[in-house]
Amino acid sequence: MSTASTDLTRLTAADTAAKVAGGEVSAVEVATAHLDRIAAVDDRVHAFLHVDRDGALAAASAVDTARAAGETLSPLAGVPLALKDVLTQKGIPTTCGSRILEGWRPPYDATVTARLKAAGVVILGKTNMDEFAMGSSTEHSAYGPTHNPWDLERIPGGSGGGSAAAVASFEAPLAIGTDTGGSIRQPAAVTGTVGVKPTYGAVSRYGLVALASSLDQAGPCARTVLDTALLHSVIAGHDPMDSTSLDVPVPDVVGAALRGDVKGVRIGIVKEIGGEGFQAGVRQRFDEAVEILTGLGAEVVEVSAPHFPYALAAYYLILPSECSSNLAKFDGVRFGLRVGEDDGNPSIEQVMGRTRAAGFGDEVIRRIMLGTYALSAGYYDAYYGSAQKVRTLIQRDFAAAFEQVDVLISPTAPTTAFKLGEKLDDPLAMYLNDVATIPANLAGTPGMSLPIGLAPEDGLPVGLQIMAPAMADDRLYNVGAALEAALLDRWGHPILEEAPAL
């Protein structure tokens, strides 16, 4: 790889777009540099399941043609992006990390995908993920795990570890993830990147293969707060194709990211997140970030959310229940894998059973069984119904907290990235990785994770989570940008410059 192409992969998305718009570099050169980077390192990272080299170069060429013709380009035109393999892209394999969808090429674009294309964003390919977004480590992919660029023997978070790893390894400056219980924010925390779960309904779910329909939300991943905001502004907005889409104006997230001023902002530390079970180095870096925010003029107070400790239990009843319903469509009849039809004269029920047994991984089967049980006659009220009542109490906790403060903060994840295989045989230990992120999904409120340093025990990234009221996503970017700028002043360089070279 040439020095020039290496430099192009290190640029921010904002700087890349400016250089393309100004004619300093072509979109094709930028795309080629990133495709070369993928070819050089992804055999070790395994961030991508499918790389669309021809499609990416064609999209980049179209941007160059538009610029040469004097057309006004969108703010991210010509910038490469990695797309999580849970969002459909017409004609491109979309597997959701599962054998049951191996080889499926959807006939349509998700709304998020269509908006990216319309903005001239260059989609490089589809990223690896835990199967159907069920996991916290990207080890549950049917196509093998993704590796954390900081330490290839460690997890990159999940379920969107492929998207976060692609950004952290400079294979793409931007990525799209989805967040059902922390699957954007937790990977961002353990890879030293920025990830945002927008307000539920702020980004269309049309074309997002559903895990839990009341929780799923697509969102942006990047290396800076501003880049994340620019991507957020492209994908957000009302979509009549999604019945849960909010028909309200998109907050000015880009303006907030450029402003980055927390003087007089009231920030609440969630009392119930960050105690027992949280790594000492995570807590240390969090406390240092709180001191920085206070020094910048923010008013920092402790806030209690008494029902947050019950969020994990409620979530792991609601999510499996919705997943057991949503995944019923994968039956080996209409599309995807089909197993056992050549074995004698099987019934349709036998084909369905054999297909699902062969196509679904252990974690997916585990959650389908849990959800089916929770929804079954005689147990619905005791389990699913009770979990929804807890969800309401958590929503009320958020409402009460936001009467006192503008945003809430906590560590994003209890620990830094753990070793591959370390928690694979202990589902409960794996589920506990999302203890800090799940409440925002249950309430539908937005959340951001941004890097705040390296844990002294292991030299791995630590993330801070910011949460805001629904449709106040701009507050995340204002606080995040202020903290990011202060940390950059302290470090003298972006945190990813400290990652070992691949």
UniProtKB/TrEMBL annotation:
Residues 29-476 form the Amidase domain. It is an enzyme of class 6 (ligase). It catalyses: L-glutamyl-tRNA(Gln) + L-glutamine + ATP + H2O = L-glutaminyl-tRNA(Gln) + L-glutamate + ADP + phosphate + H(+). InterPro entries: Amidase, Amidase_CS, Amidase_dom, AS_sf, GatA. Gene3D superfamilies: Amidase signature (AS) domain. Keywords: ATP-binding, Ligase, Nucleotide-binding, Protein biosynthesis. The active site is at K84 (charge relay system), S159 (charge relay system), S183 (acyl-ester intermediate). Its EC number is 6.3.5.7. Allows the formation of correctly charged Gln-tRNA(Gln) through the transamidation of misacylated Glu-tRNA(Gln) in organisms which lack glutaminyl-tRNA synthetase. The reaction takes place in the presence of glutamine and ATP through an activated gamma-phospho-Glu-tRNA(Gln). Heterotrimer of A, B and C subunits. PANTHER family: GLUTAMYL-TRNA(GLN) AMIDOTRANSFERASE SUBUNIT A, TRANSAMIDASE. Belongs to the amidase family. GatA subfamily. This is Glutamyl-tRNA(Gln) amidotransferase subunit A. It comes from Longivirga aurantiaca.
